[in-house]
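Sorry to interrupt, but I need a hand with the structure work. Can you supply me with one protein entry, sequence and fold together? No commentary is needed, just the two lines. Leave the record below and I will have a look.
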Amino acid sequence: MPMIISTDDLLSSSPISTDDLSDVFPISVIINIAHVKGENTNTANAEDIIKFKGNRRAELRVVKTADVSSVFVGDTFTYTIKITNLGPSTAIGVVMTDTAPNHIIFTPSGVTTTQGSVNPSSTPSNIIVNVGNIAPGATVTITIPATVTL
């Protein structure tokens, strides 16, 4: 199942806590027991137990910052989004979306990512990055140029 990350509610320097984006389920054991009936008199072969142990999913930390502390109309600046996989498993099919706040427009052609690719359907008001899989302990950095408008 892909993991979708939306940074819509982040301010320029407000980190999301790991609790907000963790996609974790507890490790558990599933036991499936099958009983076999028939003419076989060897009861030692009449039962088979298979145990499946579930794995925890990835826990992602997302931090969004800006390279300026204040801006004026017409100013350009850069948002940096860092996505770190705290583990224990690989995050599969990660997609990051960022919607521009009021009075900010993005420059989709200037977006960079250390992994994956910028989705061609990105617009000045909505950036989508198809990050892909993130290994435990790995960090992906995305930069988004932005301009202040009226």
Observations:
- Helices lie at 18-21.
